[in-house]
Amino acid sequence: MRLFHTGFLELQNPDIHFGRKNADFGQGFYLTDDMEFSRRWAKERKGETTICNTYELDTNGLSIKEFSRCEEWFDYINKNRNHKPDDLKEYDVIIGPIANDTIYDVMGIITSGFLEAEESLQLLMIGPEYHQITIKSEKAAAQLKFISSEEIPLEQIQKYRELVAKEEADYQDLFAKELELLEE
Question: Tens digit of pLDDT for each residue in 27-51?
Answer without folding.
Answer: 899 999 999 999 988 888 899 999 9
